Amino acid sequence: MKAIRDIAIDNDLLVLTDEVYEKLVFEAEHISIGSLDGMRERTITVNGFSKAYAMTGWRLGWAACNEELLENIAKIQTHSITCATSFAQKAGLEALTNEEKSEEALDFMMSKYKERRELIVERLNEIEGFRCSKPTSTFYTFPEYDFDMDSMDLSMHLLEEAKVATTPGAAFGDKGEGHLRLSFANSLENIKEAMDRIESAVEKL
Amino acid sequence: MNSDVKRMLDVSFSETMKISKLASTMEEKGKDIISLAVGEPDFDTPDFIIEAAYEAMKEGFTHYTQSQGIPELREAIAEKVRTENDLDFSSENILVTPTKQAIFMSVLAHLDDGAEVILSDPAWVSYEPIVKFADGIVRRAPVDEEDFSLDPEVFFSYQDNPLEFTEQSNWENFRQRRYESYKGHRHR
Question: Which of A183, B55, B78, B150 has the largest count of CB atoms under 10 Å?
């Protein structure tokens, strides 16, 4: 990250960072690049309530940056959504200020995510043709596969044959090809079932 | 009616939503689909947060707020980013808006025509379309296959190979050529 900071400063670059998964970290430590020396004037740090507080449908988050950078962003806001949903803002305030309850809710979710992470990584690595490293944060895995087909085709195959929805890695860029994204934001039972179904569906490949 | 607006030519629907939508359709038809394509927690919003919204609504908090966000929330966010993220900001440095909207507006506000953006590969689906929408140029930087870390060497390679538009007309020609090549294709 310091190397990126150095490049940003040497080349006078602006950095945009989305830290919305900040709280869904298992092993690593989250560091905001905007906090490094020389970055305050050139970093826009974006974050929100969606993942940490399970508020995806509320459409609530924020941008944090120096006033010079914020000005033009704020101008666009006045000509687009006008303001964030009023009562959603009150909900966000409660989420941030009621630390005890928020922490309790987050701890619960993280303990569930941990269980599921163990299961999905183990099972994927057991299935012939898949290889999956253990994610240190978020509720996603990004396994690579050996089957002779592109990720969209594999994703479609799994949807049709195994009735399991996955996301083709190519959706995220050319380097995502040869991968699938599998989320473990689903119950342990469903993940177990999904893994069994996927195993059957790829035996034929 | 000509719907080939230049800025829309490189913008397609979000791929992640495509599969989710298809899965939903199948589910509506009675198929037992298990989705591992979701980009959100399967948990519902905790009750105490819902209660706060409900109380606010009942109290009539259903009108426009300051565009930048209500002061108490901006202050709470500033406090959070100061203590948890070591960002030296006050409520004046905070704009409350949906996260995706914040990304969208940040790019539109600060990326000039033809400016380059270095984006990791893979990356979240919407960065590239947003940059293209803002008439920027995306340069992809591959990340490590195992831990997804960014290799700074990749950035140096772009320094040695900058896109050069030495005259304004070159950029216009580039844009025009791109447009011409798409004009014949009514896809997406």
Answer: A183
- Chain A CB contacts of B40 below 8 Å: 50-51, 54, 56, 185
Give the C-alpha separation, B15 to A167, whole Å.
8
What confidence tens digit (pLDDT) does each residue in B38-68 have? 899 999 999 999 999 999 999 999 999 999 9
CA distance A144 to B169: 44
pLDDT beyond 50 at A43: yes
Which residue from A130, A17, A196 is spatially nearest to B107, judged by alpha carbons? A17
Interhelix angle A86-97/A99-126, rounded to 10 degrees, is 90
pLDDT band at B1 (very low <50, low <70, confident <90, very high): low
Stated as kind and residue range, the H or E segment containing B94 is strand B94-96
Q: Determine the pLDDT at residue A138.
A: 95
Separation CA A120–CA A179 (nearest Å) = 15
B62, two tokens: 């259903």
Burial of B59 per CB tally in 10 Å (0-12, 13-18, 19+): exposed
- Tokens 């397609």 correspond to B12
Q: Where do we find the tokens 């310091």?
A: A2
Complex ipTM tops 0.85: yes
Cα distances from B159 to residues A194, B124, B131, B156, B170, in angstroms, run 45, 24, 20, 5, 20
**Chain B 84-143, CB below 8 Å of chain A: which residues?**
84-89, 92-103, 105-110, 119-125, 128, 140, 142-143
E strands, A3-160, are 15-18, 43-48, 61-64, 130-131, 140-141, 144-145
**Least CB-CB distance to A186: which of B19, B34, B105?**
B34
Decide if pLDDT at B143 tops 80.
yes
How many CB atoms neighbour CB B7 within 10 A?
A: 10
